[in-house]
Amino acid sequence: MNVRRVESISAQLEEACSTGDSVEDELEMATVRHRPEALELLEAQSKFTKKELQILYRGFKNECPSGVVNEETFKEIYSQFFPQGDSTTYAHFLFNAFDTDHNGAVSFEDFIKGLSILLRGTVQEKLNWAFNLYDINKDGYITKEEMLDIMKAIYDMMGKCTYPVLKEDAPRQHVETFFQKMDKNKDGVVTIDEFIESCQKDENIMRSMQLFENVI
Amino acid sequence: MAAGVATWLPFARAAAVGWLPLAQQPLPPAPGVKASRGDEVLVVNVSGRRFETWKNTLDRYPDTLLGSSEKEFFYNADSGEYFFDRDPDMFRHVLNFYRTGRLHCPRQECIQAFDEELAFYGLVPELVGDCCLEEYRDRKKENAERLAEDEEAEQAVDGPALRAGSSLRQRLWRAFENPHTSTAALVFYYVTGFFIAVSVIANVVETIPCRSPTRRPSREQPCGERFPLAFFCMDTACVLIFTGEYLLRLFAAPSRCRFLRSVMSLIDVVAILPYYIGLFVPKNEDVSGAFVTLRVFRVFRIFKFSRHSQGLRILGYTLKSCASELGFLLFSLTMAIIIFATVMFYAEKGTNKTNFTSIPAAFWYTIVTMTTLGYGDMVPSTIAGKIFGSICSLSGVLVIALPVPVIVSNFSRIYHQNQRADKRRAQQKVRSARIRLAKSGTTNAFLQYKQNGDLEDNGSGEEQAVCVRNRSAFEQQHHHLLHCLEKTTCHEFTDELTFNEALGAVSLGGRTSRSTSLSSQPVGPGSLLSSCCPRRAKRRAIRLANSTASVSRGSMQELDTLAGLRRSPASQSRSSLNAKPHDSLDLNCDSRDFVAAIISIPTPPANTPDESQPSSPGGSGGGGASSNLRNSSLGTPCLLPETVKISSL
Predict the structure, then answer these.
(1) Which of B274, B308, B342 is the last residue of a domain?
(2) Beta-bridge mates of residue B567
(3) Once rounded to an integer, what is the mean pLDDT over residues B497-501?
(4) In contact, A216 and A119? CB cutoff 8 Å
């Protein structure tokens, strides 16, 4: 997907008339303004209708006038939904999952791509996305350490005041359970095929995949 | 940025797909609310003010929102107009930019709001026209300064918060920095202040000549030599206290290198060093000259008062921030002194018995004259000398008067900043109390939702309506999201009180409560509970729903206020907790004999399969029991300890 990135006029102006005053430089930080692809193009590339895209974009633009979300903002936004815990780690992983071109910012296209998979994709695509989320270094294998990081991040979101009291090894045990279920050949890593196969066998997971379809 | 939390809710819920493969329990079904987001835009019509302009006008600047295809996203096909949910007054300025090519800054609007509008429409602040640029920049700088103060004040407010796990060092440091936090610190503060005063007064008094009746009246001794032992003892005591204080501060400082380099610690060292040097230096004539000089440094002890006085600190800070003005003053004075001294010297050169023996000697005359002191010990006698002397005194007034207003205005600004900071600190306390309340409201709203949870699933229509009425679609979906997280991790959100109780039970071993616990009753407690709970929960819900109606309505605003706030532990609201014991006594389920009243956080009935586990005693309030549960059920879907809180009758 081609992305038009428009450097702001301020950067050029700054070079043209630098005042040498550090305060001024701070004021006129070069802000990158990003404009998304045209509506028709996005509609063709995602599974949303035009109206849905309009609605999504308005919200997106309202929150991020510059057109991109950087990681800090992402974490802030996500943490508003989980006031009791610390969601920064999980938001970091989510950010990496959304930021498919790894440029440090989530543009509207990235956002729509992710949402399209999550809300309108097939079960296969969703599982693929989830696998991508868990595979932190994107090498095609989920190791126990990666899963432990993810699990800890999720448990962090619960915060301190949980019932029952959160034990230190709860994430680790959860990871063990997960690997027992998913790692078919017991080689210590979960590949995408093992993952999808195991998930498809699990009724609960399959049923819950339909859970978030009506979000938009 | 403006927290439009509702906008991001779909995203947060979509991201919850990431938890699905990890969930060890089936996730709750989604709330059946049709997210009617399509009407959002149409309904919110800020002012309906219609602006009409040519398309060409907008096309003049294709780099902006209005000039590019980005505005198609805001096109409303039904009404055939572009709808922007923004401030119409600000938009006027934006549109005028397209018309005239100059962006003007509105005088009466908040500069940050204006900035936000510019950012939204894709205009860079450089486009502000020359006529308004200076003011724009000034106001922005002022705002940024004020925001920086805000952050500092926040940190200062949060700083004194006592963390449970703080070490002795941290506590000591906190006591030093904020003496008002504990009585011991306050006592220490006053004691050191007292001793500083004593030390300074002793230094002063020991030079007063006191008449000794025993000696010849013509020879008067300073008191210091008359009572050397007394003064020495007092000095020793003061220095001991100062040394102790310094060492304690050094020990408690979080960053010792930084502490060693700080101004106050240098002053401390300078204050106590002469004493020690004096102890070790033998008393002989050669060195005593230097020794006497050292004693001068004892006067620096008076600077230790700056820890006790904020005004002194402000003064010091002002001088530091006016360093450039002071430097200019000094430089210009030096220039003038040299010029006039030279002139006066050469003018008075011819006279006999003149005081102006050299140019440096004339410096003294110039300084005294320029500062309008006029001691009169050096006076010009020639006519030329008198003429130049008068010019010197006139110019002196001017040169000194020029930088002074700058320094004064700096001082005034800093002083007022300080006043504002104090006022803001007081307001912050009120504000954070309010925010904590809002936050606990959100938590309570969610805990409430959980009580109503089973209602959603199996309650009848009218029961549902009663309790659901007070929850918006946003709240429902948010609570569903939190519920999914609970299911994924097999832990539940609670408030602080129950958490502390659970912690306490864990430390006590927790076993004692099991005897009164609702053990695995043979009759499938889950289902029965779910049947009797609705009534109870409904009653409670009705009672509490009304009390927390305002809270649930304001949940979106609460989330907004939470944005950017540091997490502080939610303070419990006892109202909802106190309601529970009462409710538990209202049990109408007569099919069993409860030994203990149950305060339950009823779980959705989807978990009933877990009840059949024979090895599991029903979860009691003690975490000990539940940890057993956890360990025993490693390979199986994890149990949700339900029915859980026990209160003895």
Answers:
(1) B308
(2) none
(3) 76
(4) yes
CB contacts < 8 A (A, B): 250
Domain that holds residue A194: 123-215
Residue at B29 is within a domain: no
Q: Does the distance separating the beta carbons of B559 and A64 come in below 8 Å?
A: no
pTM of the model: 0.47
3-state secondary structure B28-49: CCCCCCCCCCHHHHHHCCCCCC
A49 touches chain B (CB under 8 A): no
Query: Between B137 and B282, where is the model more confident?
Result: B137
Q: Which amino acid is at B102?
A: R
Please list, in sequence order, all residues whose beta carbon lies within 8 angstroms of the beta carbon of residue B126, skipping any fewer than 6 positions away.
A9, A10, A13, A28
Task: Write out pLDDT tens, residues B436-450.
Answer: 777 777 777 777 766
CATH number at residue B232: 1.20.120.350
Distance CA B192, CA B195 (A): 5
Residue A138 counted as domain residue:
yes
Task: State which of B117, B136, B156 marks the end of a domain.
Answer: B156
Question: A151–B564: do the CB atoms touch at under 8 Å?
Answer: no
Residue numbers in A near B7 (CB within 8 A) = 59-60, 62-63
pLDDT of residue B169: 84
Domain check: are B224 and B286 in the same one? Answer: yes
- State the CB neighbour count (10 A cutoff) for residue B491: 22
**Domain count across chain A:** 2
CA distance B310 to chain A (A): 28
Distances (CA, A) of B233 to A85, B9, B53, B348: 58, 72, 88, 55
Instruction: Tell me the nearest-neighbour CA distance from A216 into chain B, angstroms.
Output: 6
The set of long-range contacts for B342-346, using a CB threshold of 8 Å and a minimum separation of 24, is B343/B388, B344/B380, B344/B385, B344/B388, B344/B389, B344/B392
A211 touches chain B (CB under 8 A): yes
Q: What count of other Cβ atoms lies within 10 Å of the Cβ of residue B139? A: 16
The Cα–Cα gap between B94 and B105 comes to 10
With beta carbons less than 8 A apart as the criterion, state whether B93 and B119 touch. Answer: no
User: What number is the average pLDDT over the span B349-367?
Assistant: 89
Query: Exposed/middle/buried for B299, CB within 10 Å: 0-12, 13-18, 19+?
Result: middle
B499 and A180: CB-CB below 8 Å? no
How much is the pLDDT for B648?
A: 38
* Confidence grade of residue B288 (pLDDT, cut at 50, 70, 90): low
Which residue did the predictor score with more confidence, B526 or B132? B132
Query: Domains in chain B: how many in total?
Result: 3
List CB contacts (< 8 A) between A51 and chain B.
38
Higher pLDDT, B258 or A2: B258
Amino acid found at A32: V
Q: Which residues of A, range 59-98, sit inside 8 Å of B by Cβ?
A: 59-66, 73, 76-84, 86, 94, 97
Residues 6 or more apart whose CB falls under 8 angstroms from that of B424 comprise B149, B150, B153
Domain that holds residue B290: 168-211+220-308
